[in-house]
Write a structure and sequence with these properties.
Blueprint: E1 6-10, H1 14-26, E2 30-34, H2 37-47, E3 51-54, H3 63-72, E4 81-85, H4 92-98, E5 103-106, H5 114-127
Parallel strand pairs: 1-2, 1-3, 3-4, 4-5
């Protein structure tokens, strides 16, 4: 596991945030959380994340819109944004990728696989 990988997790459900934080911290990841899009936009500039996990269904500003906004922010165009979503209907994965997400993980998450999935996304981006 690479040293000190910072995961920025945007999720409006407190129980989901707790679960993901526990899984990732147990594997040595640093986790920074945001409870909605506005919270994310305030915290991101100081967070310096290696990867962003994005809930898609949030109140006010959804994950698709927030992803597009983050990709336009200076210094964040190359940070991988991975949709972590319960949207599993036909076309949802494609819509997520078209919105600018670099990957897709469906909920409920596989507790054992999640840390490996995150590492793979980071490695893929570093390889270019």
């Amino acid at each position: 596991m690479p040293d000190e990988i910072t995961v920025f997790y945007v999720e409006d459900d407190a129980n989901n945030r707790l679960l993901i934080r526990r899984i990732l911290m147990a594997e040595g990841f640093n986790v920074i959380e945001a409870s909605n899009a506005l919270d994310a936009l305030q915290k991101l500039p100081q967070a310096n994340p290696d990867i962003i996990l994005m809930d898609i269904n949030m109140p006010d500003i959804d994950g698709y819109t927030l992803t597009a906004q983050i990709k336009q922010m200076p210094g964040f165009g190359s940070v991988p944004i991975i949709a972590l979503t319960a949207n599993v209907m036909r076309g949802d994965r494609e819509r997520t990728l078209q919105a600018g997400c670099d990957g897709y993980i469906q909920k409920p998450v596989d507790v054992d696989a999640l840390p490996h999935q995150i590492n793979k996304f980071i490695q893929d981006v570093k390889r270019g």
